[in-house]
């Protein structure tokens, strides 16, 4: 079958996408689990964060995807679900992983959330063997002009900020400039687009308590051709990109963290549509 015909035949089929977590955030005693996040239906991508969206049956075999590669298959068992508090569904609805599973280590607190950062990064799992990344997103070295390109748009989002240089409990106005920005992530694709993460330098944040979003990774898409940057979101970190529904275009899945909130975000429709799977702890 020709590739275009193959894409057309699979684009309307249901596909489930989740993450292999080792262990899930804030559940260190649980071990390896799969959290099923999103479903591709004929009408588009849907979040499964609500139990009413849950499919009639979860598959027991999943393909592990990372960086456009197939890292093998895993088997899961569904332990079922019951709770008096339905708000806990997206946090606690997990499938148990049987046998061995692929691992990729991480560092630098990249996937830190409401609890401590894991030593093993989350890996995307797909109910079909759809792992290829047609956009071929790859990490690249930052360019010197990136901060200048992004500062105005960053400041629109970050707005007024404070810091506590003398006393961690006494905040004063922080008149930040472009030199206070740091680049945290920089990816490029085959079309010349870039996905870039910047924040105010966390080393400068001396205040007690949770950090404002300006001190967390703020992601922007820099289109090719010199067009203005597009804001993707704050508190994100890229998990992986791939053509999970086999329609010829890559989706991207990010880890998200905020105050008392963690989860995952899917970008689709050429990164114009955002679908969220989020949960709280309190």
What does this molecule look like?
The protein is mostly beta strands. The protein folds into two domains: 3-134 and 243-280, no CATH class; 138-234. The protein is built from three helices and 18 strands. It is globular. The model is unreliable at 1-12 (pLDDT under 50).
Short synopsis of the structure:
With 282 residues, this protein is mainly β.
Q: End-to-end span in angstroms? A: 51 Å
Count the beta strands: 18
Counted by DSSP, the helix tally is 3
Residue fraction in strands: 35-45%
Helix content: under 10%
Keywords:
single chain; 282 residues; globular
Helices and strands in order, then pairings?
Blueprint: H1 3-11, E1 15-21, E2 33-41, E3 44-47, E4 61-66, E5 69-77, H2 89-92, E6 95-98, E7 123-126, E8 138-139, H3 146-158, E9 162-163, E10 172-173, E11 181-188, E12 194-200, E13 218-222, E14 230-234, E15 236-242, E16 251-258, E17 261-268, E18 273-280
Antiparallel strand pairs: 1-2, 1-7, 2-3, 2-6, 4-5, 4-7, 5-6, 8-11, 9-10, 11-12, 12-13, 13-14, 15-16, 16-17, 17-18
């Amino acid at each position: 079958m020709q590739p275009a015909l193959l894409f057309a035949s699979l684009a309307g089929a249901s596909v489930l996408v989740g993450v292999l977590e080792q262990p899930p955030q804030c559940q260190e005693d649980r071990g390896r689990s799969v959290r099923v996040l999103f479903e591709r239906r004929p009408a588009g991508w849907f979040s499964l964060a609500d139990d009413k969206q849950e499919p009639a049956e979860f598959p027991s075999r999943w393909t592990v995807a990372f960086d456009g590669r197939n890292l093998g298959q895993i088997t899961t068992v569904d332990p079922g679900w019951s709770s008096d508090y339905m708000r806990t569904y997206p946090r606690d609805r997990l499938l148990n992983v049987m046998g061995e599973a692929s691992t990729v280590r991480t560092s630098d607190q990249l996937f830190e959330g409401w609890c401590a950062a894991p030593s093993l990064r989350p890996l995307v799992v797909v109910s079909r063997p759809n792992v290829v990344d047609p956009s071929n997103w790859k990490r690249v070295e930052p360019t010197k002009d990136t901060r200048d390109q992004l500062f105005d748009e960053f400041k629109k989002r970050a707005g007024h900020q404070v810091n506590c240089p003398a006393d961690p409990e006494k905040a004063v106005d922080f008149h930040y400039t472009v030199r206070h920005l740091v680049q945290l992530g920089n990816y490029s694709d085959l079309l010349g687009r870039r996905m870039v993460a910047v924040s105010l330098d966390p080393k400068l944040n001396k205040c007690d308590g949770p950090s404002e979003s300006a001190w967390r990774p703020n992601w922007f898409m820099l289109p090719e051709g010199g067009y203005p940057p597009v804001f993707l979101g704050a508190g994100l970190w890229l998990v992986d990109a791939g053509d999970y529904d086999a329609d010829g275009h890559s989706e991207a899945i990010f880890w998200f963290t905020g105050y008392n909130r963690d989860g995952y975000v899917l970008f689709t429709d050429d990164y114009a549509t955002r679908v969220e799977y989020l949960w709280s702890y309190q």
